[in-house]
Structures are given as structure tokens and as C-alpha cells.
């Protein structure tokens, strides 16, 4: 395999199980496997380990950690749409112990029952709503009024009302006046309606997978080793069975041996690792000079994600959302009528557009396509382990996606024109994602200084920065206002959508007879003994939710299936 350093040193410590990736899934799998004191477990993570108490930025409920480049995979980019209007975008992915559960917006949604029933119908037997609901209850059992440190579960909090949430409050009133029911718990009541989104926080802030599952006591287990800053290069496979992992730490090649390997690196890194190890489409692998170990053409295919159109609202006067509250709050679940089980369009409010001072004066209504028909891929451009994979989200490739998302945008614009929203809004448009926004997108010493200067200036002269807030949004293209035909609407949407970082499906589970299936419903990779997938790549279709809770549920379920096999 070209340019991938091959381990030629002596034997390193062997284990009973190796878990690759210490994100939302890997923290759970390592915790559950190591509960058996006889099972020696190694957890490998490419990024740093913040420790069980984490840092103030990670714990911060806004969330501040989402704007820290040091906690994300460097240089990771993906193609949003292809063709003549091809667009690329940065893909934020957590690269630390805790993974994306340490940098996400903490929205704690399960999806709807139909998501899992449809998985089961498609061949993921044992994954119906009735099958998975107990695992959701198990992972959500920590008390949000307490500290979730080492609770072996996360805390799911119901957010309190706040007068500072002007956009959320205005839209909740608007939606109720429009006849949508107010739903108390959107994780058990799957009707269309409006609600306040639950969040994964405890009394001190964010409740990450790291804090909840790898707390102080768990880390003290003599049979659990956590090795951070170690990048996995490929799997060692001999005679159809996984034997270990070849990795690199501080530039030094290392080999870790185990009879069981659990892949928890996520929907982008797990298929990449499989392909580099010779597991994937045989013709494509051989074209790159990689010897085929298992011919599984589904590896890296079926990449699904949510896309969104971010509509910005400039908030009139007064103080915006304080930085100590989660930004995500109100939401509306809608059915387009074009999907058999509904709930396929989702409107989600951010009461603060960004971490800095200007962000508190802009709210965002995200129009999200929750059940896309389009899918993309993760492929290799070279056998070189140093070369990033090719990520093609292929969004809005399917006609129904364009039609349903345009319906959501039109509905959102009607809501934003309501008297209740107009009373607190000083202008509406598409959130601008230019160079200035990109520069302020990360919390650096320079951007923190700029934010403090903006805050001070705004305090002395309240109206001084109003023109700056207006620069955060731009006029909506005419097609998004319904003033054009289908082709113009498609072009406008393709130019406006942003990623939601909820990628799944690239190693989808299903029956072995299905050529595009990569693993069985218990996570066991077809044709490679001892190799199990327990992360977002295993999910056959993206659920109608932020994916953190569904991925954690899957990790709990795969762990239980393995331990009780």
C-alpha cells in the first residue's frame, strides 16, 4: 500500500478488544466492554484527551468548543453539490476523546419511530422502534440536575423558558397560532408540531460521551487503556480474520494486537480505514494498488446527511441571548406530504447565530431536510494514508429533495413574516458565509479581541454596530421566495444549503445477500471475522434527528449484542 508506513518493530501489548475512535460511540463501547474485568480493552483516539473533567470551553453550554479548530479534524472538506455549480465546504468533526459529542450543539433528539421501523423493513432486523427504544431509555437515564461524571448514561435536560430567547418565543407563538400542537416531549410524541428541543446537559453544562462514560472511576480500571494522539492507519487482517491495528503515534509506527476490533471512527473515517485495509469494492481497490481482503462494494457508499437553508433574523435592540445558554431551542416538525411516513422537514431555531458579540444580535431559523433521498460517497483518491478521502455528499441530487426543501423554505418565510416575528426582527435574509464569517468562525486570540472590542463599542454606543449586524445576512434569491420555476429553485437551493454534520450510512448494515450491505445487524463485517462496526456508518439511513443520540443508542445496542451473544 503506497506511502503507508508498515510496522516492522517488535510485538506490542496485546488486548482482547481494540476500539478505534473515542467519540460518541467509542466511549460507550470501551466502557461496556471493560465492565468485564477479564476483558483487556484498548481505546485508540487520533486526537487529544481532555481528561474526564474536560475544559471550560467543552463544558460550556453555548457551545464554545464548536469554534475550537484544535478539537476538529484538520483540513477535512467535502463536496456539497457537484456539477457546474460544484461547492466545497469544511466538514467539522470532533477529533478528541469525546468526539463530536464534545463540540456539537447538544440537541438530544432520537428521531421518530418510523426511522427505525424503516431500517428494519430494509433488512436491519432487530432495529425497529420497539427494539431500540429500551437502549434510548438506558443511555438517557442520568439526572440532569446532577453531575453526569461516569454515570454510564447522559443527561437529557428540558430547557426552561427565557425572555432572552426572542426568536424562539416569537416563533413558538406563531406556530401555535397557526394551529400546530405544542408537543411536550418530541422524543415520544412523533406528531407534526412545535416544541422546545431537549439538550444533553447536566447541572454544570455539556454532558459529553467522554464525561458520561469515561469518568474518573472507569478510567481507573486496570483492564482499560486509553491511548490518545494515535492515528490508526490500517487493520491487520490475516486469513479472513482481524488480528490487530497498525497505527502511528508521534511519528512512530505501532502495532496493537487483538482478536476483536470495534470500529467507532464515524461515517467518514470508518469507511476510509476499511478501504485502506483492503475492504471495499475490489476493482476500485486494485486500481489504487491495494490488495483486496473482502469485496464489499457498499463500503463508502450510501453517504447520507441533512442539509439546511439558514435564514437569519436581525434582532431589534435590547440584549441578545446570554452566552451561558444553549443556542438551539424552539423547533417545528413538518410533513411535506411527499414522504410516506412524514416528519421530513424540520425548522430549528438558534437564538444566537455565533459565539462572538455580533452573533447575539442575529437569530437563525434553519430549514432542514430531515429525510433526504439523495446519497453520496466516501472514496480514496490514493492508497497513501496521508491523503484525505474524497467526500461527496451529492446533496439535492434527487428531485423530491428539492421539492420538499423548497416547501420548507416557503413555510419558514411565511412564519418569519408573522406579526409576532416582525415585532422583534429588523430584517431577514440568508445567513452570509463569507470570508469575514469564516475568520470569526474560530475562537482565536485575534477573534476574541475583536469580539471584546465589538461588545465594548456596543455598550458605549448601542446603535453603532447595527450596520455590522446587517452584514450577517444577505437578501434571499428570488427563487426562494417562490418567484421562479423548478430549475431556478433547484439552482438557488444548491447555492444556499449548508451541511448539518449528521453523516451516516457509509457501512450500512443489512443481510449478507445484499451486495451493498457491509455488516450484519449485529455490526459484524461480512467476510472478516472479529471485526465489528458500532458507529454512524452502520446506520442504513439518516434518522429525522440530530444524530448524536441515535449513534449512542447504536453503540449501546451493538455492545449489548456482543456481550450477550
Automatic annotation (TrEMBL):
Pfam family, one: GMC_oxred_N
Residue ranges of domain Glucose-methanol-choline oxidoreductase N-terminal in the record: 94-117, 266-280
A molecular function GO annotation: flavin adenine dinucleotide binding
Gene3D superfamilies for this protein: 3.30.410.40, FAD/NAD(P)-binding domain (3.50.50.60)
Cofactor(s) for this UniProt protein: FAD
Binding site for FAD: 104-107
Statement: the UniProt record of this protein carries the keyword Flavoprotein: yes
Keyword field: FAD, Flavoprotein
Family note: Belongs to the GMC oxidoreductase family.
Protein name (record): 5-(Hydroxymethyl)furfural/furfural oxidase
Amino acid at each position: 500500500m503506497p506511502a503507508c508506513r508498515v510496522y516492522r518493530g517488535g510485538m506490542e501489548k496485546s488486548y482482547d478488544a481494540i476500539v478505534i475512535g473515542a467519540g460518541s460511540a467509542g466511549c460507550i463501547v470501551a466502557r461496556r466492554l471493560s465492565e468485564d474485568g477479564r476483558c483487556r480493552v484498548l481505546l485508540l483516539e487520533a486526537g487529544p484527551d481532555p481528561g474526564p473533567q474536560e475544559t471550560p470551553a467543552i463544558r460550556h453550554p453555548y457551545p464554545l468548543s464548536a469554534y475550537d479548530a484544535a478539537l476538529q479534524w484538520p483540513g477535512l472538506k467535502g463536496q456539497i453539490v457537484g456539477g457546474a455549480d460544484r461547492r466545497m465546504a469544511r466538514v467539522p468533526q470532533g477529533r478528541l476523546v469525546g468526539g463530536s459529542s464534545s463540540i456539537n450543539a447538544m440537541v438530544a433528539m432520537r428521531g421518530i419511530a418510523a426511522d427505525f421501523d424503516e431500517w428494519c423493513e430494509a433488512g436491519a432486523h432487530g432495529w425497529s422502534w420497539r427494539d431500540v427504544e429500551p437502549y434510548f431509555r438506558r443511555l438517557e437515564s442520568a439526572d440532569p440536575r446532577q453531575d453526569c461524571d461516569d454515570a454510564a448514561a447522559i443527561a437529557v435536560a428540558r430547557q426552561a423558558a427565557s425572555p432572552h430567547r426572542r426568536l424562539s418565543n416569537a416563533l413558538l407563538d406563531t406556530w401555535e397560532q397557526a394551529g400546530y400542537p405544542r408537543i411536550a416531549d418530541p422524543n415520544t410524541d412523533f406528531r407534526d408540531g412545535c416544541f422546545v428541543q431537549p439538550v444533553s446537559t447536566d447541572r454544570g453544562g455539556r454532558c459529553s460521551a467522554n464525561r458520561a462514560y469515561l469518568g474518573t472511576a472507569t478510567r481507573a480500571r486496570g483492564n482499560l487503556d486509553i491511548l490518545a494522539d494515535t492515528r490508526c492507519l490500517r487493520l491487520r487482517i490475516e486469513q479472513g480474520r482481524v488480528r490487530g491495528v497498525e497505527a502511528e503515534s508521534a511519528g512512530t509506527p505501532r502495532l496493537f494486537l487483538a482478536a476483536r476490533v470495534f470500529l467507532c471512527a464515524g461515517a467518514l473515517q470508518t469507511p476510509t480505514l476499511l478501504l485502506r485495509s483492503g475492504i471495499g469494492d475490489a476493482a476500485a481497490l486494485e486500481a489504487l494498488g491495494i490488495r483486496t481482503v473482502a469485496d464489499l462494494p457498499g463500503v463508502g457508499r450510501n453517504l447520507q446527511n441533512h442539509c439546511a437553508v439558514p435564514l437569519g433574523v436581525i434582532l431589534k435592540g435590547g440584549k441578545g441571548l446570554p452566552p451561558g445558554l444553549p443556542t438551539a431551542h424552539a423547533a417545528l416538525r413538518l410533513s411535506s406530504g411527499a414522504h410516506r411516513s412524514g416528519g421530513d422537514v424540520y425548522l430549528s431555531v438558534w437564538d444566537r447565530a455565533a459565539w462572538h458579540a455580533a452573533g447575539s444580535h442575529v437569530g437563525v431559523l434553519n430549514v432542514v431536510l430531515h429525510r433526504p433521498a439523495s446519497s453520496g460517497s466516501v472514496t480514496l483518491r490514493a492508497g497513501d494514508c496521508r491523503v484525505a478521502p474524497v467526500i461527496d455528499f451529492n446533496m439535492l441530487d434527487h428531485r423530491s429533495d428539492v421539492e420538499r426543501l423548497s416547501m420548507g423554505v416557503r413555510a419558514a418565510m411565511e412564519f418569519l413574516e408573522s406579526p409576532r416575528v416582525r415585532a422583534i426582527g429588523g430584517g431577514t435574509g440568508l445567513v452570509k458565509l463569507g470570508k469575514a464569517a469564516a475568520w470569526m468562525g474560530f475562537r482565536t486570540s485575534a477573534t476574541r479581541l475583536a469580539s471584546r472590542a465589538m461588545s465594548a463599542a456596543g455598550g458605549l454606543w448601542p446603535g453603532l454596530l447595527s450596520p455590522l449586524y446587517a452584514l450577517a445576512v444577505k437578501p434571499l434569491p428570488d427563487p426562494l421566495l417562490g418567484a421562479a420555476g423548478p430549475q431556478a429553485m433547484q439552482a438557488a437551493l444548491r447555492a444556499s444549503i449548508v451541511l448539518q454534520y449528521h453523516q451516516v450510512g457509509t457501512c450500512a448494515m443489512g443481510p449478507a445477500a445484499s451486495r451493498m450491505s457491509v455488516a450484519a445487524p449485529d455490526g459484524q463485517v461480512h467476510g472478516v471475522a472479529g471485526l465489528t462496526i458500532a458507529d454512524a456508518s452502520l446506520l442504513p439511513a439518516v434518522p429525522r434527528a440530530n444524530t448524536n443520540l441515535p449513534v449512542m443508542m447504536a453503540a449501546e445496542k451493538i455492545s449489548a449484542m456482543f456481550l450477550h451473544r
